[in-house]
Design goal:
This protein has a two-stranded antiparallel sheet. The chain is elongated and about 50 Å long. Helix 3 packs across helix 4. By secondary structure, the chain is mostly helical. The longest helix is centred in the middle third of the chain and has 22 residues. Helices cover about 50% and strands about 10% of the residues.
Length: about 110
């Protein structure tokens, strides 16, 4: 990312953690695989914490899905967001988290 382009500057502002990893990576060709490994590890830790608390959740890529089951009636999106932030904070990362709600009527 060129520091002197508008896009590069904006990328650094919006994704400072990603940029710091890119800037410190010696072999940039391995970076995508490394980033996927880190993300996968973090999501697995989030799932493990959710399961430990009795939450019925699954993941799809980097999303945590709260299943519509009676066991989850007391869970709020903020409960999951809190776990995500806690796990990422332990790794000295600051995730950008947002919540989308949807339902399927069959």
């Amino acid at each position: 990312i060129a520091r002197y382009t508008a896009f590069g500057q904006r990328f650094i502002e919006v994704y400072p953690n990603v940029y710091s990893v890119i800037a410190e990576t010696k072999d940039i060709t391995k970076l995508p695989h490394l980033m996927m490994k880190v993300e996968s590890r973090m999501i697995r830790k989030v799932l493990a914490e959710c399961y430990k608390r009795g939450f019925k959740v699954i993941s799809i890529h980097d999303a945590i899905i709260i299943l519509n089951t009676p066991q989850n009636d007391s869970i709020t999106p903020n409960d999951i967001i809190g776990i995500i932030k806690e796990i990422y904070h332990q790794a000295q990362l600051c995730p950008m988290v947002h919540c989308d709600e949807f339902s399927i009527n069959i």
